[in-house]
UniProtKB/TrEMBL annotation:
Matching CDD domains: cysteine_hydrolases
Pfam families reported for this sequence: Isochorismatase (PF00857)
Keyword Secreted among record annotations: no
Protein name: Isochorismatase
Amino acid sequence: MANSALLVMDVQRSIVDRFEDGGGYLPRLGEAVDAARTAGLPVIYVVVGFRAGHPEISARNKSFSAAARSGAFTESDPGSEIHPEVAPRPGDVVVTKRRVSAFAGSDLDLVLRAGEIDSLVLAGIATSGVVLSTVRQAADLDFGLTVLADGCLDADLEVHRVLTEKVFPRQAEVLSVAQWTKSLGA
């Protein structure tokens, strides 16, 4: 596990706020973060973010054009902050991406290569967004992959189930947070 890192993706205030309770999502994700730190694994936070005025977003981009219209996910937007329940600590890396995948428009690959990381543990919101896109791209880049099924959250429970039970296992090991933390000896 020395070459692994935990990616905590898109767990930003305005994204988390879209979910009523999340079935204890943030405390469970906090357990994964704590277990990674205890095991000495890097915790890398991935956030979606844009410059003021959103010059990175085309009007043709269905996913992000609403963010541009509303002024969301800029440095001045408090909703773009990582949720305080799982906030980074000194030494944690925060990577800003410009699209859905954690790799798109970010320096994530550079950070991973510099850290000689070849295996990723993925958690985040949404399962059908950043997690799916990152699984696909990371698999194509030959990273070993683990997805924490209950460390991911999606507005559509059926889509979450199909992805974690049928799609992700083709390219990743899919575990619960409890199973993963136990495998670390935490």
